[in-house]
Amino acid sequence: MKHGPARLIMSNGDTVSYGYKSDVLDGEAVYNYASSGVREICHFVGGVKTGPSTEWNAKGDEESRTYAKGVLEGPATIKGSQGDRLEFTYRAGKRSGTATYFWADGSREISIYDDDGEETGPCKLVRILKSIFLNYSVPNP
């Protein structure tokens, strides 16, 4: 019977660290995919991925999301390494509903994901033009 911490090292350098309780995955798991630069920290309850999960890619982008009974469900955020951010919702494992993309310069785009997880129109771009505000002066009467 498996019980306690375990670590799997693959021939390509990828590693997985996790724990068992009574032969079932349970607790925190850490995936390090050296071959692609992806890293994920997640949790298992009774052998099923459940609760918060964070994944980083080779560029340093970070996605925070939640699993419910093995399926992505609820709010999620992707933070880009350059300061951009995407906020959206997972439903039944797919992006769904309104999503807002925030650029590092303060601009943002609002879009919609359909039931198949596909981004559909229309989109609304809101751009903050700092140069207009910085160079604008009110004339004296």
Task: Give a topology summary.
Blueprint: E1 4-9, E2 15-21, E3 24-25, E4 27-33, E5 38-45, E6 48-49, E7 51-56, E8 62-68, E9 71-72, E10 74-79, E11 85-91, E12 94-102, E13 108-113, E14 119-126, H1 130-134
Antiparallel strand pairs: 1-2, 2-3, 2-4, 4-5, 5-6, 5-7, 7-8, 8-9, 8-10, 10-11, 11-12, 12-13, 13-14
Could you walk me through the main structural features you see in this protein, from its secondary elements to its overall organization?
With 141 residues, this protein is mainly beta. The chain has two domains: 1-58; 73-141. The chain contains one helix and 14 strands, in the order ββββββββββββββα. It has one helix at 130-134; strands spanning 4-9, 15-21, 24-25, 27-33, 38-45, 48-49, 51-56, 62-68, 71-72, 74-79, 85-91, 94-102, 108-113, 119-126. Strands 1, 2, 3, 4, 5, 6, 7, 8, 9, 10, 11, 12, 13 and 14 form a 14-stranded antiparallel β-sheet that branches. A hairpin with a 2-residue loop joins β2 (15-21) and β3. It is elongated, with a radius of gyration of 21 Å. The chain starts with a strand and ends in a 7-residue tail after the last helix.
